[in-house]
Design a protein that fits this description.
The chain has 251 residues and is mainly α. The chain has helices spanning 9-27, 40-49, 68-77, 86-100, 117-125, 137-145, 158-173, 177-183, 191-201, 210-215, 224-233, and strands at 33-35, 55-58, 61-64, 202-203, 206-207. The protein has a 3-stranded antiparallel sheet with strand order 1-3-2, covered by helices on one side.
Amino acid sequence: MSLNLTYPQADERRHLRAIYTILLASAFQDGHSFDHGFMSAGEALGRGLAHFDAIDWVGASIVLRRPAPEILRLIETAPLSDLPMLEDALSVLLSFLGQYSRVPKLTSPDQPTNFDPLATRLFQDMDLLDAAYLPQPPFWLILVNHHALVPQDGEWAPGIREPLWDICQRTWADAPQEFKDVVAGKTPRPLTWAEGYLERDWRYGRWLNPHDLRRAIAQHHRALPAIVVRTLANPDHGVFVRPRYLPKRLN
């Protein structure tokens, strides 16, 4: 199962353009500014648009310095190395939908999603959803990362537990030593430091190279960094499950 989004360059540009078409139309309804209210999804939107040298930060607002059609043209013409990574742009869109529209709350990839129509058409075009709105394997861990696919009664669905364990092992195999030392408890730094390390330098079991880092969009409050770090810190306990998803104890 592929865990990374890889498309031919023409398709990558087309999908980036579709993502930003939705984001720009949804956020900048006046064509000029968006009040992000210091919410994480709005701030991530601004960081993504900064790749186009297209915005000013004004208090709690993002103000466009380039009109939306010009930003969309840049996606078609600029070198890919100057554009945001597709998986990060998709993450911004999912964060935005989570705060300002809707994302599903699934416990199994066998359950259909209920994204809004524009997002559904995009995800189907990207082969992330099938005709019955079921998430396809490349979408599973992306949904986990966005708290849209979660454990039930303390257990991950079998089809999810295995790829989660796999990305934990691949992460550890190539991890920088300072990350390993924190996870192994050899330094006073907390595990949350290691989670932040993943948010910055890692995606879906893959450590970002300098080219990727140039295109990355910094994001926060994703699920996978904590899952991976806590699993690696306590591998005998299996794949980490947040306490909120554990069975409630009977009094």
